[in-house]
Design brief:
Shape: globular
CATH architecture of one domain: 3-Layer(aba) Sandwich
Strand content: 5-15%
Largest sheet: 5 strands, mixed
Distance between the termini: 87 Å
Radius of gyration: 25 Å
Helix content: 40-55%
Structural class: alpha/beta
CATH superfamily of one domain: Bacterial extracellular solute-binding protein, family 7
Number of strands: 11
CATH class of one domain: Alpha Beta
Strand order of the largest sheet: 2-1-3-10-4
Order of helices and strands: HEHEHEHHEEEHEHEHHEEHHEHHH
């Protein structure tokens, strides 16, 4: 470098710094931060809308993170079996996952309370309100800690009320469930067992093949879209709608604790807001897709029946027995239940008094259907 060029180079260096300081228009800053890639697995087959919801969440993260964080979502069984997602994430076999809390029921019965049962009259969105504002989140962390499960958990996505189930023929009374080989999960296992069914808690992807081979006589999964995509109408033409066995469920997004803690603070905030955005988006998409697929299932010859009130009342009676038994066996179960009941007593009084009967307006415009 010649001495004659030195002052010019210093001047240019100062000018460049000034341009950046004045707004960065001349020399825009480019982030050199390395991309953090996380491998997730869902609890659902690739074709299920639930796996689509998992991908929707990942896309929101990937879009907002500007290349600094990337989440890839694999379908159920790609790395670990569907019902081993929690352990897989805790151990670091997976960086994260997408499932439901009730699937961990076998580890502590209290975990089923984030999905199973009537929720003391709360709808799924109200149960999420209890979780985030009524103490549920702290209780879930307490249960995971008691199990030495070190994960970061986010709940989102209130699910519509699930059908009572798919059957070979309509269920007219509680006695019709005696001896029926049936698929469900969580504390719903105890509820259907109390009603006389022989229950097998199969993962989602195994239900329709089991129905087709006669290994089970009936099953419930979740919603019109999932049921249609999984092939229920190919093996059954009878579906009973409305039930208290899983009327308050939502999804869970899991992160391995070490992987999550290593993220920059702004990336953690992106995750927070992506969870909230995904919860709203999933709710809106479910209304659109479930209503369309409900109509398609009818076109395919599926006969839908409302679950008789006598069976619904029996579910509540059965639930009371199951809840009392589990509360006596498990102090954490009772602790969660008491927390839910206290929140529900206040929240349901408000909602039931304030909400108008939307069915009245629907019947006015479209007639009774």
């Amino acid at each position: 470098m010649s001495k004659s060029n030195t002052p010019r180079r210093k001047f240019l260096g100062k000018a460049a710094a000034g341009a950046v300081g004045a707004g960065g228009l001349a020399f825009p800053m480019v982030s050199t931060a390395q991309t953090v890639s996380l491998r997730f697995q869902s609890t659902w087959p690739a074709k299920d809308i639930f796996h689509e919801y998992a991908n929707d969440f990942a896309k929101k993260i990937n879009d907002m993170a500007g290349g600094r964080l990337k989440i890839e979502v694999l379908p159920a069984g790609a790395v670990v079996p569907a019902f081993q997602l929690l352990e897989g994430v805790a151990k670091g076999t997976l960086d994260g996952g997408h499932g439901v809390v009730a699937y961990h029921y076998g580890k502590n019965s209290a975990l089923a309370l984030w999905g199973s049962g009537p929720g003391y009259g709360m709808d799924p969105n109200m149960l999420l309100s209890w979780h985030y504002y009524g103490g549920g989140d702290a209780l879930l962390q307490e249960i995971y800690k008691s199990l030495n499960i070190d994960v970061v958990s986010f709940l989102y996505g209130p699910m519509p009320t699930q059908p009572y189930g798919w059957f070979k023929k309509p269920v007219a009374k509680v006695e019709d469930m005696k001896g029926v080989k049936f698929r469900t999960v969580g504390l719903a296992v105890d509820m259907y067992t109390e009603q006389g069914a022989a229950v097998n808690p199969l993962p989602g992807g195994e239900i329709v093949p089991a129905l087709d081979r006669g290994l089970i006589d009936g099953a419930e999964f979740n919603n019109a879209t999932s049921d249609r995509l999984l092939g229920f109408p190919d093996v059954s033409k009878v579906c009973m709608l409305q039930s208290f066995h899983q009327s308050t469920e939502q999804f869970e997004i899991l992160f391995n604790r070490g992987k999550y803690n290593a993220l920059a603070p702004e990336l953690k905030k992106i995750i927070d807001y992506a969870v909230e955005a995904s919860s709203a988006d999933m709710s809106w998409k479910a209304i659109d897709r479930n209503s369309k697929d409900y109509a398609e299932l009818k076109k395919a010859g599926v006969q839908f029946y409302k679950t008789p009130d006598a069976i619904l009342r029996n579910q509540l009676e059965v639930w009371d027995k199951v809840a009392a038994k589990k509360s006596a066996e498990n102090p954490l179960f009772k602790k969660v239940l008491d927390s839910q009941k206290a929140f529900a007593q206040r929240a349901t009084a408000w909602q039931n008094d304030y909400l108008v009967d939307f069915k009245m307006a629907s019947n006015h415009y479209f007639g009774r259907r």
